[in-house]
């Protein structure tokens, strides 16, 4: 749908569709409670800021904004596989949901003062070339003091959908990575992707002092991102996920990514609400899988 049609159907003084970076269509939402921006490509949230608080998400100043190229930062939707394709290296990393253009289904002004956006992505000849199955993806974004996300995958085909991997691959902005602790992963085993995918055990809060790329298993509880000096914490509550991914590329990997500033690793951490590792999902005929994440900020 063209921008003019989107604005006439869903726009208001609080919801505006426009041409964003690289000419890609985006939507800006501003309410008394918060502001948010997302791109229609990937239903990719690139900004969220509760009123009176600092911006929550980290965006790369070097991100590409080009059709079919993943945006760096914000909240990429990784689906229907997490990481590299399990068998075909030619396939896009983290699946295709984040590089496909989604459709706006509805924008609701709720009596609570929140705004709910509903987006959808359905199988097409192009997606079936990449992944030969029929699906409907629905993504609900609820904007208030908290950011509530719901990714619903429906099996509309005639075969079981197996081994679906996905993640809300959220990039959080931090003041200083050296002041960051991640709580909620204590006594959890994890796959260390920086060390031959070996299985290890987390003890206590996680500090980031080197390249960190860990898939925590049996991790269904809420995760807290704590910045002590900044007196700020972020709580990520989730459902439909038993795995959490923590990623920081650190110096060498940051330098190796053209869409990532060399010093960017100092001000970001990915805390990803995932179905990764042995937490991939199966969806039977007519079934669905729902993944939710609720992001709340606490500033002391
Ligand atoms: O979530 C961690 C991870 O799988 C890392 O291994 C790294 O590849 C990161 O995702 C970013 O992936 P991307 O395809 O967005 O560059």
Structure description:
The chain has 300 residues and is mostly beta strands. The chain has helices at residues 3-10, 125-130, 250-256, and strands at 15-19, 25-30, 34-39, 44-50, 77-78, 103-109, 115-122, 135-143, 147-155, 161-164, 166-173, 180-183, 189-192, 198-201, 206-207, 212-216, 223-227, 232-239, 243-248, 268-275, 281-283, 288-299. The strands form 4 sheets. The chain has a 9-stranded antiparallel beta sheet, with no helix packed on it. The longest helix has 8 residues, at 3-10. It starts with a helix and ends with a strand. The model has no long low-confidence stretch (mean pLDDT 97). The structure holds 6-O-phosphono-beta-D-tagatofuranose. 6-O-phosphono-beta-D-tagatofuranose is lined by residues 70, 83, 93-94, 169, 193, 213, 245, 247, 270, 272.
Give the key terms.
single chain, 300 residues, mainly beta, Beta-galactosidase, Chain A, domain 5, nine-stranded antiparallel sheet, seven-stranded antiparallel sheet, binds 6-O-phosphono-beta-D-tagatofuranose
* Percent of residues in β-strands: 35-45%
What small molecules does this complex bind? Answer: 6-O-phosphono-beta-D-tagatofuranose
What order do the helices and strands follow? HEEEEEEEHEEEEEEEEEEEEHEEE
Please give the radius of gyration in angstroms.
18 Å
Overall tally of domains = 1
Give the neighbour order of strands across the main sheet: 6-7-8-9-22-18-17-12-15
Corresponding CATH architecture:
Distorted Sandwich
Overall structural class, as computed from helix and strand content, comes to mainly beta
How many separate helices? 3
| Low-confidence parts | none
CATH first level:
Mainly Beta
What's the average pLDDT? 97
Q: What is the CATH third-level topology name?
A: Beta-galactosidase, Chain A, domain 5
> How many strand segments?
22
The 3D shape can be described as globular
Largest β-sheet summary: 9 strands, antiparallel
The amount of helix comes to under 10%
Distance between the termini: 43 Å
